[in-house]
Amino acid sequence: MGFKLIYLFLLLPLLTLTILSRADHALASDKKLHESHRNRTVLAGAGRVKIAALKGRKQTSDCNLFQGRWVFDASYPFYDSSACPFIDGEFDCLKFGRPDRQFLKYSWQPDSCTIPRFDGQAFLNKWRGKRVMFVGDSLSQNMWESLGCMIHASVPDTKTTFLKHTPVSSLTFQEYGVTIYLYRTPYLVDISKESVGRVLNLGTIEGGADVWKDMDILVFNSWHWWLHKGVELQGWDYIRNGSSLIRDMDRLDAFSKGLATWAQWVDQNVNISQTRVFFQGISPTHYVGKEWNEPKNTCNGQMQPLSGSTYPGGSLPAASIVSRVLSSMKTPVYLLDITTLSQLRKDAHPSTYGGGGGTDCSHWCLPGLPDTWNQLLYAALSV
């Protein structure tokens, strides 16, 4: 799809909404200095909300939203998957026969504060007429579809427009003028066609990035594809690293360089008076059971989270890279530090119930863990 067509695709929901809004009215006749702009976490508890400054992953408040434990909660899930028209089969575990339901009944409880419960109608009212875009890979899609279902459950009778294309898909809640976009670009940086083949260019973001600029909320994500090996799975033949064209390199180093390019793009192009920027954080996998002291197991057959607040397998190197890059930026980028809380959810993957065969310990069932990611996003946006 050419860039002009992408722009036209993005404008169509707004033109439609403008016409509808005018018709409805007729019928009725009626971010602070750079240092303080670093990642901000909303802390809600005891009936009040506090804001704390973050630098990388270090939090200066007495409450860390991302440090806590999973607790049984009979009020969950937020929605019924059979009533949400936006879920892809790969995430719809109940549709494809997952027999247990207990994985749906856990909520995230921070150690010393309470997360406000998600209210889809309040979200739509607060962000009326605004545009939200998730930018990244299939984990971005996981979170995008989750948010669509959570909002839809609050306003099930509201008219929606749901369009799926490559690279841009959208979901518009017409009455409120809110559009939630998904822009698929797994590496964030460019893959270009050159004479040698497909080249992953660690130093450029040009292909379609202009459509990110005018969003009111941007939620970026990348890491999943940096681990893919083989030209078919990884989607490129060579890497361009500066002036060097190479077959491959250390993937953590490549991720670090690519993320630095993304950070530079954000610093140079995002208008912080208009746009809130988030990074989704590193979503873990559960293929290696020895990480949680079950060496013969994967996510398959897991029925409950790990207890406690620490993951036996330790932290992920990619998460440290994200923290380092974010802390070096001029632009305030809020880190949704989902890694540890997601590591504890070995039970929340599609495993063999993703509809595509094989065992999927990378993505997450819907309803499920991504709903908590969105609840944390909602908390951050509540200020």
TrEMBL record:
Family, per entry: Belongs to the PC-esterase family. TBL subfamily.
Record carries keyword GTP-binding: no
MF (Gene Ontology): O-acetyltransferase activity
Protein name: Trichome birefringence-like N-terminal domain-containing protein
Trichome birefringence-like C-terminal domain location: 115-379
Domain Trichome birefringence-like N-terminal: start-end pairs: 62-113
Topology of this chain in the membrane: Single-pass membrane protein
Annotated signal peptide: 1-28
Example of a GO cellular component annotation carried by this entry: membrane
Keyword hit for Transmembrane: yes
Alphabetized InterPro entries for the sequence: TBL, TBL_C, TBL_N
Predominant localisation class: membrane
